[in-house]
Amino acid sequence: MRKYSYNYKFNKPWLFKALERDKNCCQSCKSTKNIIVHHIDESRKNGHKYMNNNLDNLKTLCKVCHAEAHRITLKYNNPRISLIIELRENGLSLGDVGHHIGVSRQRIWQILHRFRPDLTF
Question: Is 120 part of a structural domain of the chain?
Fold first, then answer.
């Protein structure tokens, strides 16, 4: 994990401009939690020395949608999440879902809260 200096965010005016333009909201799922500014063209990965920080190259995403944009699998972003959501939508309590999956009710709540903050349970 990167360690940023204290002034990391304050040295990046493009970050605030993108967040303000997108109203601090994920442009894919409309979540307002765990927001990240994503570089669309991933210029550094394509051999460029510097990132393209033009506003038209920036998109505000939540942590889950950002991982999907980079095709990264998060620890709990797998079929188990779909099963947890399906069980909850079918009326099972957090405790019953936890019993079915094999984890505690609290862990089910943490997983849902972290990876699907747009859902209300």
Answer: no
Q: Are 27 and 37 in contact (CB under 8 A)?
A: no
Q: What is the pLDDT of residues 43-53, one digit of tens each?
A: 665 566 777 88
Residues 62 and 100 in one domain: no
Q: What are phi and psi of 19, to 5 degrees?
A: -65, -40
pTM given for the model: 0.52
In a domain, residue 40? The reply is yes
Is residue 84 located within the same domain as residue 32?
no
Q: Where are the beta strands (DSSP E) in 8-98?
A: 35-39, 58-62
Domain count, the chain: 2
Cα–Cα separations (whole angstroms), residue 96 to 45, 46, 76: 44, 47, 19
pLDDT tens for 73-118 read 555 445 577 788 778 878 888 888 888 877 788 888 887 877 777 7
Q: Does residue 86 fall inside a structural domain?
A: yes
